[in-house]
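Appendix B, Record 12. Input sequence as logged:
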Amino acid sequence: MKVMLKVKEWETRKQKHQRKRGLYRSALQLLLVFIWIAIIWSMSAQSYQQQDIQPWLQKLSQKMHIGLILPDVQFAYSGHEYSLKQNPYAFVEFFFRKTAHVFVYAVLAALVYGGLRYKRVTIRTGILLALIVVALIASMDEYIQQFSPERTSSIRDVGVDLIGGCLGIAVYGAIRALFRRK
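Logged structural output:
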């Protein structure tokens, strides 16, 4: 009888410990999401000059003595014309900025989705909620950019951010599947 009571007492302690660990993990996951959102919004509040990498690209190309003959690739995005031949630094910076959008929102979506999956939310619900969070934060991000000097706000960037969110969820799922196999 005493042995049975001790076993039950031990199981109760173990369950309390597991619940406590789960709460700490959930709190950490939520904290990481909020920190990442704060990073996104702090970057949104920066002026174009604070984020301009063209001077750095020019110095780098001079140090490396890059003398390439570039094809004439041109396109328009949000009312701006980009030409690889006429202004290669602006062209490269544009792709750097859009890649940064994809990366930042991929991380956000992976953090949100991972936290939801840890809570045993279904895959569909997790994907949907993670993408809703990405859309909301991206929309607020674009709204904040309206008030930053020489920054443009574009609904197209929200689309780019959603693509990043989808990639983040896909990469998270692939990595999780790999670890499950091992």
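The chain has one domain: 53-181.
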